[in-house]
Amino acid sequence: MSYLKLANEGYKLKLQYAAEPPTPPSCLYAARRDSAAFQLILCSDDYYSVNIARGEWISARGDKHITAPLRHERLRVDVDAPFPVKLCIEEFLTDDDNIQKADMLLAQSVRESDPHKPTAVWAEVCVPENAAPGDYTVTVRLYSAFSFEDEVLLQTETLPLHVANFLLPAPKDRKFFLDLWQHNSNIARKHDVPLWSDAHFAVMEKYVKTLADLGQRSITICASEIPWSGQSCFESQEFGGNLFEFSIIPITRECDGSFSYDFSLMQRYIDLCTKAGFDGDIEVFGLVNLWTKERLMPNPPCTDYPEAIRLRYYDRADGCMKYIREGEQVKTFVRALEKYFIDTDQIERVRVAADEPADVDKYRESLNLLQEIAPRFRLKTAINHVEFIEEFGDRIDDFVPHLRSGLKGYDSLCHYREKYPEKRFLWYVCTGSIKPNTFLRSALTECRMIGTITSVFRFDGFLRWNYTIWPEDPRRELRCSRWEAGDTNFVYPAYNGDVLLSLRYKNLQRGLVDHELLETVRDRFGDGVADGLTQKLMHVQDAFTYYALSRKDVALFSYDWEKFNAHKAEMLALLAE
Q1: CA within 20 to 30 Å of 283's CA: 11, 351, 352, 405, which one?
Q2: H/E run at residue 259
Q3: Strand order of the sheet with strand 134-146?
């Protein structure tokens, strides 16, 4: 016996006893240049395969000790819609609680499974910008065959689709400022290509495309070696991986003792991202607030500089690779980098980035020296200590507080936002219990909630440290010793050099669309109407109350996907032309 069940796009299939049953969406809603998604949950009492295409598939399963005819059910799904449909079989990954959960969206069109073990399929209807508004029907058909029998139609399901007369802006034209850090050295390692080679750039271009599809704004540049000290990946080998990131700027010491700096690779990556639509800042890591670990590096290469900066160079005199060890030579490099950005008319985009500085005095010393060396550089800081907001409010150009810190110091943030309207204010979450979050264990509605929270608390956007920070073999094992499973990535490396998306990516993408619709409602009808719509999702809209309750196990917002669906329907109804 086989079955097909429909589920909403916020459902996460879990392989566990008494797992939450799927709930089908009552209706699919989309704007023009938008999409509407749902999931198919399939299962059989026999060994079976699920095919989302029309190609042939014969199972290789067998047992030489059994002479009876092999019994293997071949299930095939077909989705008929008025617009193009993308289908992806979902892969399970083991979470920290040892329960397997669907997340990765596979590229192959067939998946085999054991009896009674369900399979999930992601289905997304892509509504073009020239679509005629109106009501449509999406039809799902399940076909079955055993061995070489002809298929029979086993089941038919339908879903209503409403297309509103509203043209959703392209991702690059939306209001949301998205900053997902790019860790390109990890991409090179996982795809077996030489760092900063043509092959590496070809692979990075595919990842840049997936970021652009979200509306990414920021470009991540590593200007020195291992600015995060590999996230201390060397301290634990269980579920570990190599997480070191390396500089994109080759340095050479010429035979006369002078240094030359090759900025061409950096510019190539900036151009690649800019062409894709990243029109925001160029965030440069590796100049201030470098993370250090005594076990990794008891003695930093340069001892007469306030930061443990690692600048590696090729020495033409003897052919050796070495580290810069004099503070004045570090200053020369920083000046040259600033001059390059000035000469190429990019200096206004540049932000020298710091990730969670913890020592106020030390950070002040680093900023004072940076301002002395390169006064045109501006600052961007991810803050997880609320006192940094008050201390550096006048100096930091892009504020990025952790959600908990930002809400605790919300009055100060609002003061600076009013005083400096040209500054940018993002928020972030990372490891820990704060919700919403984007772990494998997190409800997919938490990913979607990011867009609504950004609008409710009047932030400009969202930052996440992860995108491709994978453990050793992320397609088989997502758990990572130092973080919750899923904390390190939104996408996965395909074996052919492509990018595999995830359910968390897709629900974040949906949340960013929610933000664009909500901000458009805010622009057209005012804050009162916009905030009234969000009351059905947000149980708490006061910043300090949210902060206080976030430390307790209380529901701060709805987890009911149907409320999100109704929320989108209401916004589209208001905005329909």
Answers
A1: 405
A2: strand 259-261
A3: 28-32, 152-167, 134-146, 72-80, 47-51, 110-113
